[in-house]
Amino acid sequence: MGFAGGLLGLGAVATTANATTVSSKIQTAKVESVQTYKATKYYTKFNLTTGNVYTSRYLKNYSHNLANYPNTTWYSTEKTTLLKTNGKKAEYRYIYNANKSVKGWVWWQNLQTKPAPKVKTQYLLVMGHGAGDAGARGNGTTEATYLRNKMLPKLKKYAAEVSNVKITFYNPSHDIVKDTLTYHKGSYDINKKTKVIMFHLDAAGGHGGHVIIHSKTPTARDRRLASVIKKYIGLNPAYQGYSFRTNLNNCNVLRKRGIDYSLIETAFIDNKSDFTKLNKHLDQIAKGYIEAIADRQIK
Ligand SMILES: [Zn+2]
């Protein structure tokens, strides 16, 4: 999904019927069983962020990303159990859309039997820095790299587990601050009803995390987010959970536009103890953040 798609991905997703075909790394070693059935309706799993549509049950090539079709009604007539070249068994279903412009084989877990829910609340999750800005450094990594390579996949995994809010992700190859302040895009392009959560890591003398909030008192969501930090990392003693700041220019654009946001400083990237806790609990932290955002428990 391109830059515009990343921002407008809130419903207005471009569909390319003439997608190019890409070779896959893990393929089918053996087709164990095939079952056909009467055409049955399926829908793309809600909040799905990735999912190959393979051109055949041998999984050699894929031509579409299922996540680009969040509102499509699919028809399925066949399923198969495969042994893959990575040694794992998996079930795949053959699907096609109404005019058959998109068709192929998808992992069954990327489908659901009910249509996407009509949700009012939309969230945009943003990994800080990027596009040449490394952000803070420490413990052999950078803020931009850690957020994109470690935190983002976990957040995506748990985002797909909630159905009461729509969660999208800002294009990770972009830096929202640069987009906003240099190109007058970024935070200027975000729909006013969308809520924005920005992810960062702190550095340079200190430990613990906190939430930068958009008004003087934290919202219920800010409190839920801070409790995740408190549980797994500990709070930065300088803030005790929250910091109300008006000197962050990108945040000020959101505030002036009336957009609800939180900016999470999870931990100090250059603090050894913080970094150890961050790595150890990353999965639970990401789960906690998505639960805090959606205000729902994930099983
Ligand atoms: Zn940062």
Automatic annotation (TrEMBL):
SMART domains attached to this UniProt entry: Ami_3
Pfam families associated with the record: Amidase_3
Signal peptide: 1-19
Organism domain of life: Bacteria
Gene3D superfamilies the record matches: Zn-dependent exopeptidases
MurNAc-LAA domain residues: 188-294
MF-aspect GO terms: N-acetylmuramoyl-L-alanine amidase activity
GO annotation, biological process: peptidoglycan catabolic process
InterPro entries the record matches: MurNAc-LAA_cat (IPR002508), N-acetylmuramoyl_amidase_3 (IPR050695)
CC annotations in GO: outer membrane-bounded periplasmic space
Keywords, in A-Z order: Signal
Name of the molecule in the record: N-acetylmuramoyl-L-alanine amidase
Organism expressing this protein natively: Secundilactobacillus similis DSM 23365 = JCM 2765
